[in-house]
Amino acid sequence: MSTGSLHHILTTPAAELANESSESLFRIKSDAADLLAAAKTVVEHIDRAVDLKYAHRAHQLRRASGKDTGVVHFDDGAVRITADLPKKVEWDQAKLAEIARRIAASGDDPAEFVEIAYRISETKFNAWPESLRSAFVPARTVKTGKAKFALAMSGRSQNDSLFAAPRSRDLPGNGCVSPCRADGGHCGQRPARTHSHPGRAGHRRPL
How many CA atoms lie within 13 A of 65 on its CB side? Predict the structure, then answer.
């Protein structure tokens, strides 16, 4: 897919694209997916190069600022570099639950210290008897995500036609489309352009 084709697709209203044939939409979507995958690969490759070039300098600046994570800025020629190393904190859920129980046992409210979220596995919910599910239904809200469609060509190629003319090699006798011998049979020959047969005067078959 060329740059011109991309521009044409992007400037074509979605309502007009929806009028395209399924085969055309399949080709467009497949080409776009290939371009996206290629672009992601290129970006990841460049990001690795940028990391190799600036990671050490960014680490030194963080150490000088007395921090292990966060954002630092520096210049490389005319380019301003912003290096961000996000902080990712994970909490042990089992240990937090035990701490929350100890807080509650001491008479304090765990909600003042710990944010508690309740979740129910949808698989378990569906396996419960109706009498149990009905108690939880008022607290359950079902939302839908974005609809997704996968396009794939069926077994019959888009170039195949239900009304395609038969090929000569598929015809009886591998040549003539109608009996050409005097006895009503087929000659079994593949004609160059026209051919005639003894016994059937004037018989000629064009390609």
Answer: 13
pLDDT tens for 149-207 read 888 888 755 444 333 444 444 444 444 544 555 555 555 554 444 444 444 444 454 44
Which tokens belong to 12?
A: 């074509």
3-state secondary structure of 186: coil
> Residue 200: exposed, middle, or buried by beta-carbon count in 10 A (0-12, 13-18, 19+)?
middle
Q: Which of 123, 43, 45, 52 is nearest to 83 (CA)?
A: 52
For range 32-41, the mean pLDDT? 95
Helix residue ranges per DSSP H, 11-145: 14-17, 22-64, 93-105, 122-127, 130-136
Q: Residue 166 carries which DSSP code?
A: P
Of residues 22, 23, 32, 25, the one with CA closest to residue 1? 32
Minimal CA–CA distance to 205: which of 183, 182, 176?
176
Of 177, 172, 165, which Cα lies nearest the Cα of 206? Answer: 177
